[in-house]
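Usage

Read records sequentially. Each one opens with the input sequence:
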Amino acid sequence: MTDKTEITFTVNGERRTVTVEPRRTLADALREDCGLTGTHLGCEHGVCGACTILLDGNPVRSCLMFAVQAEGAQLRTVEGLAQGDQLHPIQQAFWDHHGLQCGFCTPGFLMLAVGVLEQNPDIGETELREVLSSNLCRCTGYQNILKSVVAAAAEMRKWAKSANR
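and closes with the structure output:
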C-alpha cells in the first residue's frame, strides 16, 4: 500500500499537515512525522495507556487510531503541557509527589489525568482511582501517581478560580 493521504490537524496549538499511509497509526504519525516522541508506544493494543493523548479534549489511545481519523482535530500531547519553563500543575505534582520512576508510562498518565481533570475538576478519589487504573505502571504501585493527581486537581481548581475572577 503506497498511496498516501495528506491530513491536517492542530497539535499543541500548531497546525500540522502530514502525508501518511492510511494504515499509519496516530501514535506513529505524532512520533515519526511530527517529531513528538513524548507519546510512548507500549503494548500497541490499547491496553497500557502509554500512548494516551487528548483528541478534542478527550483522552484517547493513539495507538488504536489511524492518523487519518484525526483530520481536523485538536490534539494535545505531553509536549504541550508546560508553558515555556513553567510546568503544568500535573507535571509539577508528579515531580513533587514522586509520581514517576522509570518514566515510560508517565506521559500517558499525565495526559489521561489532564483530560479527566479538565472535564471534571471535582472528581472524587474513588472515581479517580478507577480512571487511573486504565493505565499501566510497572514501577510505582500507583499510590504516588494517585497522590500526584489529587494534588494537581487541587492546584488546577485554584487556577480555574483565579482565571474566572
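Summary fields computed downstream for this record:
- The two ends are 54 Å apart (CA to CA).
- The longest strand covers residues 5-11.
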